[in-house]
Amino acid sequence: MKFFNENLPYILAGISVGGQYALIAIGYTMVYGILRLINFAHGDIFMVAGLMMVYFSTAMPLYAAIPLVLALTVLLGFVIERVAYKPLRNAPRMSIMISAIGVSYLLQNMALYVTGGLAKQYPPIPWISDIINIGTATTKRVTVITPVLTIVLVVALVILIKYTKIGMAMRAVSRDFETARLMGIKINNVISTTFIIGSLLAGVGSLLYFTNYTGVVPTAGAMPGLKAFVAAVFGGIGSIPGAVVGAFIIGICESLIKGAGWTTFSDAFTFALLIVILVAKPTGLFGEKTTDKV
Amino acid sequence: MDKKMKSIYSLIAVAALFVFLFLLERTLPSTSMLFTVLKKGAIYALVAVSLNLLNGFTGLFSLGQAGFMLIGAYTYAIFTIPPQARAQVYQYFDGGIIQFALPVPVALVLAGLAAATFAFLIGLPVLRLKGDYLAIATLGFAEIIRAIFQWDKLGPITNGSNLLRKFPAFSSVLFPFAVSGICIALIVLLINSSFGRAFKAIREDEIAAEAMGISLFKHKMLSFVISSFFAGVSGALLAMYQTTVQASAFKSAMTYEILLIVVIGGIGSVTGSCLSSFLFIACSEWWLRFLDAETVISGFHVPLLRSGFRKVVFSVIIMCVVLFYRQGIMGDREFSWKGLIGLFKKPFAKRAKAKGGAAHE
Fold first, then answer.
1. Which ipTM value was assigned to this complex?
2. Given CB atoms, is B264 within the 8 Å cutoff of chain A?
3. Minimum-distance CB partner of B144 among A97, A110, A272
4. Nearest to B276 by CA among B73, B112, B52
5. Which pTM was predicted?
6. What does the pLDDT look like over B53-66, one tens digit per residue?
7. Partner-chain contact B318 A95, CB within 8 Å
8. Which residues, 6+ apart, have CB-to-CB distance to A271 below 8 Å?
9. Cα(B243)–Cα(B73) distance, integer angstroms
10. Which of A145, A147, A206, B299 is in Cβ range 3.0-4.6 Å of A49 for a Cys bridge?
11. Residue B348: CB partners within 8 Å, gap ≥ 6?
12. Nearest-CA distance from A100 to chain B in Å?
């Protein structure tokens, strides 16, 4: 109990960060489940959403800026899929991955050009960045909202995938591309929908993430992106509940390590955890077994 | 053309290149951008070829190259800072533990060996993974290495997160060319040996290769360790080029850059990697430089041109190559004298045919 009380602020922060990672990780895991592609640009979509928020919040009131940012983030994800991934659909998987790295490079350089390389101040969002007290800890309201919102969104997503027509199509496409196409599923629409959902969640994640930090820089997406990806692999890539569980574990561990004064190693720890999991259970916690066809 | 002639031609070409570089250094001012491109290009050529050995020839998708370069750079720097400069470099750590300096060539080899040793240890667990999982695990290891080298407790050796400097560097462009050239030649020899054929077999089909009696793990490890050795050497060269080392520079973005170089050159082509590394560096450092400057042509302010635009244009070019020119510059072909001569002969041959000349060749 003493450990709990002392570390409460870190645990709370960890849960919050975990929720933010979870929202990004879902985007990774859905895209990977369908295209077998590590979408390296996903973290940068997240960063661009943050930057757009910075610029729009100065030009218009927040209640207009937030929906606009989410809409544009979704559009960005959609356009990236159409321009950079769709032409490579029949190419080897490595080409698509390199295209993703190229998109990430492009987005970062564009952000560098637009911002001039300076950190941009993220606007405080009323209500969610207010200070509140929980037990012995003082924190922002976003810390509490994030996990709740994450869980609500995940439940909605799971329902979507289980019970709707598009969800069924997604499952079919992720199982077998060609057969799904033969069965009359418009796979391009399904893939676009996946990117749209993933980008929307990344947009929401960026709203919650950057409220906790002061600024947005062009490389701000790289680390959270990688961590979220690690979370997705950790939970078993392709599985949405897995991604969420993985994200929360990673968020909490990272926060506790920072609390213990080992900040240098908080990133390294995440990757060490990943490698241990991969070596012990190569498909992650909830991953499906794959078999090699000879 | 027989083998002897080919090697004579190659030797002449290499000698001519070095004479040309030597003359360049005598004629051009040493501040010329050309030298920056040549030095950095030679270093990147080495690391690109080493990554290509792994990705292109063995089919192992590894993203850890920046980590191995970091180990090489640090090893080189730590062992070559002269003892009298150590107190100044390690000012927060009482001059550090190591109080001797090794000669440059020894330190270069040691840099490679250190990277190779780490690669061996990392390879033991990681090389059992496949495809994307291997990629993400090696990427993770590179990040872990970066964190370890920045750790305060290791400060007396690595200087923590502070700069390492005052180690010997090179002034002539001939040095990186010589070192990279020797290393790349060694890699080419390896690729053409029976090991190289085993690597290619693993790339084409792991299961079939195993069925033919190739030990998968042994050959993957060999490829991984050798690739890391040369990445370490190139890291040491990069340290010499920059004259300072800091762990925070060796991010995963660096690996992505090297991977893009390999892809632009053609996956599975040593010649392609070399060519594209020079092109890549020339484009990003030199040729597109004008895009960064605000330009006014006869009173008309050219839109968009300002600091940072160069990189945007550059990344658009890269995207175009990746999307529309997927094979890269060379595909998986290599440079050969026969191919070069054929290239020159072709127009003449056509002309001869058009004249209705000797048809029977």
1. 0.84
2. no
3. A272
4. B52
5. 0.87
6. 998 899 888 888 99
7. no
8. A230, B139, B140, B141, B143, B144
9. 10
10. A206
11. none
12. 9
